[in-house]
TrEMBL record, chains A, B:
The lineage of its organism: Bacteria, Bacillati, Actinomycetota, Actinomycetes, Kitasatosporales. The keyword Isomerase applies. It holds the Pfam family AP_endonuc_2. It comes from Wenjunlia tyrosinilytica. This is Xylose isomerase. InterPro entries: IolE/XylAMocC-like, Xyl_isomerase-like_sf, Xyl_isomerase-like_TIM-brl.
Amino acid sequence: MSDLSRLSFNSQTAKHWPLPELIDAAGRGGLGGVGLWREPVREAGIDRVAHLVRSAGLEVTSLCRGGFFTAADAATRQERIDDNRRAVEEAALLGARTLVLVCGGLPSGSRDLAGARGMVADAIAELAPFAGDHGVVLAIEPMHPMYCSDRSVVSTLRQARRLAERFPPEQVGVLVDAYHVWWDPELVDELALLDGRIAGFQVCDWVTPLPAGVLTGRGMMGDGVIDLGALRREVERSGYSGLTEVEIFNARLWQRAGHEVLAEACRRYLAHVA
Amino acid sequence: MSDLSRLSFNSQTAKHWPLPELIDAAGRGGLGGVGLWREPVREAGIDRVAHLVRSAGLEVTSLCRGGFFTAADAATRQERIDDNRRAVEEAALLGARTLVLVCGGLPSGSRDLAGARGMVADAIAELAPFAGDHGVVLAIEPMHPMYCSDRSVVSTLRQARRLAERFPPEQVGVLVDAYHVWWDPELVDELALLDGRIAGFQVCDWVTPLPAGVLTGRGMMGDGVIDLGALRREVERSGYSGLTEVEIFNARLWQRAGHEVLAEACRRYLAHVA
């Protein structure tokens, strides 16, 4: 039986699978960890989930998600920061190593990209010490530029690195998700410069044609064009020693039984990433 | 009557409008130029189109498209280069200032992004002197990273600039299309570094949600999130003195009468770009 101890399974990959069953299956399957999302954790009960992952001997590689710092008015921005504080506390309760930041797109009606990026930097500056005090690293996730207007105005590894470098590495790091960064001509150089700043590594594959809305068309590893093995080696060369987390948003995958999706993710990980 | 002499209308914006009618309307409307595509030009007859644009006093700001240099086998790559030579000759016949290069995505079944980028560089090196001898600038168009796998492995202004800088500016330049580059955190810095290398400037707007396939969802200027006026000023600050070309691929727009689309493009250009 091949080694899955370096693999983490993000719960959104099998989003309709009850979390307790998913955690149990990941533990029995010999995986090293799981990636969790706030809403399903809340539904199952955060104390219960924290107990289940510990009993299963699993690491929580990430909690999704914080961020969405960009808003037209200061009151809304403050609400977002307050909610991110709660997310940090939830991550600490779960023993999650990182809180993933989906930083937010342009405020409704705005064309001020520089202004939105400033809001993100200000919010992270306000949250960073709080996260560090809780033993949680804020993981800035540069998202594919096709999400710049509505998901994240942080679009490249360089941009995320420059933002993260303003803070101690125990407070702010960078999440490397293959789907978002595989295309970047600066990829290898930037991974090297991230030296010790990578707070998480997520994989899936890039497949076309993209579906309408471009949110649920991510591919299972091996179905697309990303050289995931080479990317994993560069990420490790940059000093990342954490697990590889499989996170796939795919409408067809969500129709399948959770245990089947987990089994296929494990096979594909061993064949295309490990 | 406001000044449209700095505006060029790309024929694909009203793709079902017969080219002779489009050219006539652009000339009467006081526009400065048109952007053309090889197939409709061939249908209408290249000598006839060349005569019509000259009689209408229009500049041909671009001919689309050359490129697609990436292919698994050498024979196919050579065919592509030969076809690009014909495209250069067609651009010269039309008096087009540039041949737009859509460089090509990953060869079928390939995950070798660096290799594909090498094929692009090799092909441009082979074509550049030929283009210069014909008075045509090869305009490398960095395309949005969401097209990296299937349209162009050249995804950013920096990447396009570094490629173009290997050649004299009268042989190779960079096409700046707002749709492809608006999100880039390096946008302003890279436009400055392009100093004299910008061979063309195209505008439309970024609107979401993106349609399936992400090809025909471009927005009319003002309908989206791009600060087109600011972008035009940066492009001009970089030394670009050419026309602004409107190029919009939009399934709904294509259902409307050509003269209506042209009229709206002119209004939107004056309101949001000029």
